[in-house]
Structures are given as C-alpha cells and as structure tokens.
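Rotation project, supervised by the postdoc (A.L.). Task for the rotation student: set up a whole-complex structure prediction and record inputs and outputs verbatim in this book. Inputs entered:
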Amino acid sequence: MTISVTRTEVPNVEVTDGAAVPGGTAVTDGTAVKDGTVQYVNIGNLELEAGGFLPDVTLAYETWGTLNEDCSNAILVEHALTGSTHVTRGTDDEEGWWEQLAGPGAPADTDRFFVVSINIVGGCYGSTGPSSAAPDGRPWGSRFPLVTLRDTTAAEARLADQLGISSWYAVLGGSMGGARALEWAVTYPERVRRCGVISIGASSTAEQIAFAQAQTLAIRQDPHFNGGDYYAGPVPEAGLALARRIAHITYRSAQELDFRFGRNAQASEAPLRADALAARGRYQVESYLDHQGSKLVGRFDANSYIAITEALMSHDICRGRGSLKETLARTTADFFIAAVNTDRLYFPSQSRELADALPGDVDVHVIEAPIGHDGFLTEIGQLDAQLRGVFFA
Amino acid sequence: MTISVTRTEVPNVEVTDGAAVPGGTAVTDGTAVKDGTVQYVNIGNLELEAGGFLPDVTLAYETWGTLNEDCSNAILVEHALTGSTHVTRGTDDEEGWWEQLAGPGAPADTDRFFVVSINIVGGCYGSTGPSSAAPDGRPWGSRFPLVTLRDTTAAEARLADQLGISSWYAVLGGSMGGARALEWAVTYPERVRRCGVISIGASSTAEQIAFAQAQTLAIRQDPHFNGGDYYAGPVPEAGLALARRIAHITYRSAQELDFRFGRNAQASEAPLRADALAARGRYQVESYLDHQGSKLVGRFDANSYIAITEALMSHDICRGRGSLKETLARTTADFFIAAVNTDRLYFPSQSRELADALPGDVDVHVIEAPIGHDGFLTEIGQLDAQLRGVFFA
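Outputs recorded:
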C-alpha cells in the first residue's frame, strides 16, 4: 500500500511493489493517489560511485497533475539540501516550498504538466537514508555510504522508467536541486529536453566544501552523535542546530542580516549585562539563528544532513568526463540558468561560468534580491515572464 | 621579577609591582628588560561596562626601542583576535607577526620609536584571562566576565600611565587590533595623536556577530567544555579547532581557497572512496582547515577564544555616544584607514563608512590582495609608502 507521511518525521517506510501506471496514479489499494501525497517505490540495489552498492533502495516522491498519453508533459522539480518533495500544495492543501514556481496557473502549471518531485537518497523524507533499516533491521546510521548526486540521479532514472517517463519535458531545481538537475542533463542527455539550473554552478568549490565540512563536524562533535549510531538514544540536536546556523548565515547576505537585525539586543535580553560570559543576553541575530537551528532539528535527521551535505560536496559535473566544455557538449537540453545577484554561497560568477561553457548562447537570468542565496526560493517570481516565455513555453 | 613566556602556553603569571621607569626599561632585578620580551604589570581592579569589576588585573606587554626624554615617540600596536604581543622579533630573534610593519627600518621603526604591544584582557598570553587564577586561587573559567574592548582600553590606559606615556605618537592595529585602536582614539582623544584602523569598521555587524556565535557555540558544545571549567581535565580541543575552521574560512577569500585547493583530494586520500561516510578521504581544503584548527589548539585557550570573540561582538564605537558622526567628532587624531579589497569578513565598505564619518577628509587605503581579510597581515607592505609618508612621517 502507499502511505503518506508528514514532512517532520523519519518514517519506517512500507515499500510499494513499484507498480505505477502511466498517468502517474500508482494504483495500490484501488484508490487513485492524490496530488501532493508522498508515494514510495522500490528501485532495487543502487551501485555507488564510491564503490559497493546500497541494497533495496526506496524512493519517496510526490506528483501533481496528470501524465498525458505520450508521456511528454512530465516535469521533475529537484529539492535543495533540507527540502522535501512537497513542492506545492496538493489535495491536503499543505503549503509547498516553491509555490511561485509550481501549481495551478504557475509557470510549472500543474493543470497542464505532470509535476514530479523525488526525495534524495540519503534524506529523511521517505527515500532510503541513514535512518532507514539496513538489511539487518537496524538503522544504517554510521554504516550509511557516500551516495553522490550522480548515484541519486541514476536511482531517479529508474523511478522515471517505472512512471513511464522516457524523457522529461523539464528538469529543474535551485541550489542542490540545481546540481541534481544539471547531473540529469549530463548523465541522460536524451531524457532531458529542458534543464533549469538555479543558484549553483558546475561543481562545489573549495569554499563551499569548507563551509560544508564545518557543518558536518558540528554534528559529528556532538556528544550524542555516537559515530552516527544514535537512533536508540538522545539525538545530536545541538550539533545539527549549529550546522544549520552556519549554513543559514551563508544562505543570507551580510546586508540582509544587518538590515534586519543590526546590533539590536533580543527583546528583553542584554548582550552586555552579565556576571559571567555564559550568562549574557543575545543579540537579535543570535536569537534568529537559534530559531533557525531549532526549526531544522524538529524536522530533519542529523545523519541525513551529513549524507546529503557530503553528496553536495561531491558535486562536480566534470568528474571523469573531461573539461567543463567537453562535459557539457554532450547535453542536448535547452538550459535556463539563473542566479541571485547577492548570493555569497553560490556566486553568480559560477552560474556565468556554467552558462558560458554550455553549447549555444545561454544567458544567466539574474534575480535581484538583497536576501542572498535564499532568493532562489523567495524571489523566483521575478523570473515568471522568462520562465513562461522561454522554459515552459 | 619579570618573567618571559613562550607564546604557546598559558602562564601562571608572577606579577611585577608595576614599577616601570620612563624609557620603558622596567628595572626589576637590576637588568634592563630586553626588546620583545613579555613583561607583566598589575593595574588593579577593572570596572566593567557589563557591570561589576575584574579584581587585580595583570597586563602582559612587550616593548621595542627606547622611549625618548619627553615620552613622545611611543607607538601602540594592538594585536588581533588570537594574536600575541610579539609584533616583531626582539633580542630572542623569534619572528613576530607583523614584521612588515614594525622593526628596525620598518614603518614603525624600532630604532626611532618606542613600540609597545599589550595582550588583551581575557587572552591567554599573560594578561588576566579565564585561565588566570581568581581570588579563590582557582582558574576563572566559567566565572570570567564579559570584558568589552572599551574595558580593555581603560586597562591599557593605566599601563600607559605606568610607562609614563601621556599620549601615543600612534595607536594602530588590524582587525580586532584596529577596533582596539579606534576605541583608544575615541575614549582618550587627548592621548592618541595618530590612529591606524585597518580591516575593520566602526562596529561588528549582524553577520560578524553571527559567525562569532557559531564559533563560540562550537566550543561550548564540546563535551570537554564543562561550562568553561575544564582546566583540571581534558580541554575542548575539538570545539576550539572547529571554531578556528569557521573563522579561517572568513579570513580568506573564496577565490583564494579555490585557487589553492580547488576540489583536489588530500595527498593519497580519496574523498569518494569509502564504505561509510565517516571513512571517506578529505579534500585538500579540509586538510588545510584541520591543520589551521590544530595549530590554534596548540597555542590558545578555548575560554580565552570565547572571551575575546564576545569582546569583539561587543565592538561598537557608538555605544552610549550617539551617532557615528557625533561619536567620531570627539577624536583629534590623524587617521589612517585601510582595507583589503577582497575582505569578506570586514567589508571595505565598512572602512569607507568609518572614513566618511571621521572629521576632515580621510581616505581609505586599499590593499589589493586576493587572499581576503588576512591581507592586512600579509600585504601591509603594499602601504609602506603611505605609512611612512603620512602616518610615521
């Protein structure tokens, strides 16, 4: 049967037999699957770039709309680091994370397209990850392997096969979702007709790897981490919250943080009033980041955070494929490249480098937003005209 | 007596009686103090902005050269966050951290000037800090109070009194050292004739506070931290090393890290070869940051890192003084403002804002260096002509 999970728990997944009929309504217990409902499919063993394989892999996904007769209207929206498959609201009316982009009447119009989103392997929203049961019945935990973005793309191709989608009308995403989309266009050129790569470049740079290392260490150094085998006991909440704080600083711009918080003290707290350092009050920006940390702790698994972060560290479209130009020469998709002008994590220059190396003349559509990297989520509406005119024409 | 310590240990300080004769050669056991040797002086109880006072405060300092008859040739060089008083080599010939700036024949010519450097209160290089003995004989540890940069400036003024220096020829520093110099010029306008503020602005911004919070949390969440009372047992080395990694990323530029390390694997290690995530090899930039972390752990106290970092969070020249223009109106020094063009921690725009608000026409001297913030240390030589012509004329 197909079960639905909220996006705030790590489910013990009951796997479907993978049966899915074109049209995307996986018939299970006789009832059609509702839009924006998590479904599960088993895609078998997954060979890994890093060596070995991950057995009996489950992918969790959601769909909206209807796949047409010739299966030509399918759009894959790839989520970012801690994102979920809930791109836009479904019949449950639970708000999605990219409603400016996908939904009835949106650029990725769910009245016209069959929109699919797949939870990344290693995550905690239903696809096989560190919190899933290994063959011995215990959670993978410390034993979970490195699953690169290229590995996860291969897994997603098998789901596409099961859905009867031989070629996507479009594959797109922002940040890590953009890296996943780009990997799709390079690995399976014949299966991607349009590719949207937003707020990320062709590979993770040294600085991006450096910030990622700090985040994974913050979790690994949590006294509750226990090498990754913490599912029986207390979980490394403080470490995950610190990782999120570090990440969140890079998701915003210095200007935005200063404009919103400046040097203000949090409510009644006094950063300068204290007998001892540990007792001092917080600045507003500290309280804000504490809140960002707690919010993630409430909805995400620390091992999954590490697994996906290290997958993103592995992002390199050129690995084993030659120069960037040579690598991209194999692509046949029409590309839509966008960047946020104030992004200080994935610099617009990286998007420009990618666009310049792509076959043909490819523009970089610039989102003007003071917020920084997160502008790809909050300000995608700025590109509405370009997306409708060029991409989803 | 005066004792000398290496810059890699936390000394149990034996305090002098503070006797120092003009000329800067503190006569203790009858022998003149050698250039570049740590000396100690007791400046009594220190009232604190945050409330209360720190009793019986010791300041550690070094001097080079000779104070002239009218005590008019004294230059105070303030160190940065984890810096020491060893600005340049002394008779021991141990290399200093800013030899391009100070030394025989350097802009701050020790053959001509009496150069002084003072270890910040809260540090671990001889001045009273969390590892020092409190009145009860135990280390301050968790009980160490917040000592703001303004507090530490007041302490340094008492040392200047004891050295017979009523007014400095110049006070200057980079990064936190620049904040300390600026605080001197605003708190004691009549005592600072020239002020050099390099690679820092008038206050710590929300983003700078945010990165600082992540660093202090990395230490506080170390299982060995024990609330700050760890001196009897194992010390929070992992937490301090993580704090340093986070900080070091912000000290360099994305371009520099990418140019030096790119996505290269460390030596024989393989970031993509591993059965389990925890076993994967490192990227070069990870190994580089691991090394930066270990180096600091070998020479710095974790509580001092927190104490000074929170002092830097408190950096706000305007606190209790009105607008930036009003605050700076009281200064009488000639200012030398400089910034590194690629600094992504203390943005050149903050130096410009400071220069624009200062009385008179003040330029911002730009250091052109791809390295980022650390350029103030490595590339100060670029400003040699300006420093000699304008500042140390």
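Student's summary: Chain A has a mean pLDDT of 92.
Supervisor addendum: The CA atoms of residues 39 and 291 of chain A lie 31 Å apart.
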